[in-house]
Amino acid sequence: MNFFDARRIFWIVVIVGAVFTIIGILLGNPFEDYQAGANL
Amino acid sequence: MLNIHPFRRTAQVFGLMITNIYFAVLFKCQIYTGVFKSVCLPFLYCHSCPSAGFSCPIGVMQHYFALHRFPFFLIGHLMLIGVLIGRMVCGWVCPVGLLQELLYKIRSVKIEIPKYFSILPYIMLIVFVVLLPYLTTEHWFSKLCPVGTIVAGIPWVLWNPVNPSTGAVTIEPGTVGVLFAVKITIMIAVIILFIVAKRPFCRFICPLGLFWGFFNKISVMKLEVDKGCTKCDNCRDICPEGINVYMDPNAKDCVRCLECLRCKHVKIVNALPSKPLK
Question: pTM for this one?
């Protein structure tokens, strides 16, 4: 199985996406940051 | 044979309506800053638009980089959507996609934009969304974004209401200058492209489309062409992106509009990826 096997990449993306989402939530209320972004 | 077009057009109109949900701007004369503005849409649409009810992910992303922070939540949840449906939001709910498809119906000379211009979204994403905002703390993509000019810049300049809370006009005299002229020039060029080429914004400008495009090959929802395909190229004519579906049914430019399902040889496959990436 080579490294660029699509199934492996799929699970890497799922895990990284989930970790990023959790880190984002743990870093604070993401929606407040979005609010700041929206009021440019 | 499945004609998905009426459903998709309905979904696109719904996307346009839900994006521009803030009707109270007519009385308040300011952009909406309430709780729903805390939610990022999964497609590009300027959150400075007078009627915008939600935020633009690219606007928020560059804002984070301008603050020297990484948008973990934004990138993370977009990745999770991407691995499920790939680039489907581009084809089904993005108002810019709808605008491009409608303008392409205008009878005019039609052109094929050379493939090598597909480097442009990389430049947009890396230079204008990440690097320049990080280095200068300015929102460079928003400054030049043609969608922002169409849905936010022009409406605000033309309307220019008196803000009831401050008593001052929204756009102070003299603030519309060279940058606005540059934005208008870019916008006119892009609108001409919308008329003569198939969804050029999605293929050659949109940094979010580039981001979504990475997921087409690994997402749960995929397209497959069976061995009975006669390579008649009807799929290419139907495709709003002009893709030869039988050559690469999961191309990064594919917006998953599913119009090509009109051909009996094209099928949706919902399964975890199993083949090596090409």
Answer: 0.90
